[in-house]
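User: I'm putting together a teaching handout on how multi-component assemblies are represented. Below are the sequence lines for each component of a complex, exactly as they appear in our records. Could you produce the 3D structure of the whole assembly as structure tokens, so the students can see both representations side by side? Please keep the chain order the same as the input.
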Amino acid sequence: MSNDRPASQPSRALWSAAWAVARKDVRIELRTRYALNSMLLFAVTTAVMVSFRLGPLGVSRDSRAVSTLAVLLWVAIFFAAMNGLSRTFVREEETRTVALRRLGGAAQEVDHLPAIPRVVRGGRPRRRERGGCDCCFG
Amino acid sequence: MNVTGAAPLRLVWHNVAKTYGSRPVWQHLAGEIQSGEVLVISGPNGSGKSTLLRLFGGLEQPTVGTIEYIRGAQPLTPRAMRPQIGLVAPEMMMYRELTALENLQFVAAARGLGCSTAALLEQLAAVGLAGRTSEPVSSYSSGMLLRLKYALALVHQPTVLLLDEPTAMFDEAGRALVDTIITAQRQRGLTILATNDQRELAWGDFVLKVGSALQ
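Assistant: Of course. Below is the structure of the complete assembly, with chains in the same order as your input.
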């Protein structure tokens, strides 16, 4: 169990940390089902509201109507996902588990999604002017 | 003393001050410790012991002054230092829905350690949690939670170990465990405690008294 991490493999460490965080979040979610339930409720509500507008027979099969439905589906998926994502971060703050993750090496980048593309390319994350990762350990 | 063969690690802080709003916590703090040494931060409630520990851990920044880790003559960047720090603090909580083993597996994976399950179970046994590793953390007592915090803080064999109220929830067996951990840490790096317990003051090579009491 060494704490030395080769500097030449930032992306591998990053993906390993990202995978660890994702696996942990899925495991917790399967046990609590807070985000899953709210996402399901959002999806059902959206489907019901759309069906009220379109009526029981739905839309005609022309390509524009089908495209509209496809857009609606993606919008619903996006907002349901955002709903679940925000709950994940709020839970970390409320249960005060953030410090555990902040000291967790490469997991820091997982919290800063905009920094990921640079790290994956093998570069350093952009230095922030105030309160960023390079200014303190956090 | 350093068994790793690397140059000794030093922690140097100079003219450090911390202010919350207009309220200064303390100012003009300066000092230095190195591998093998133990520093105890002591002071009354509200004097900023935990704050200073968080500054040393990089979880907060000083309002004024510098805090630097230096190996040999080479200053280490905060990013390089972070993986070498282990922290045990009351405000650091675990994932209560997960078991002790799952918490440790997560921290080890997030730190990029390739630890086997057997090695992690051994780590949990070393802090006295053998046989309770598959129970959810939500069912743990305060003392067991603190033992798990030690396992999480030590899984990567940190060169800097920061302990805030290190035995606050412990019985005598737990206190003996901390004594063992601090003795082992002297071989690996430096240790900093924040405490008011007179018995814990004896663990330190130096005592840094900070702040004034809450008014």
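A couple of points students might notice: Residues 36-47+81-209 of chain B form a domain with the Rossmann fold fold (CATH 3.40.50.300). The CA atoms of residues 129 and 144 of chain B lie 7 Å apart.
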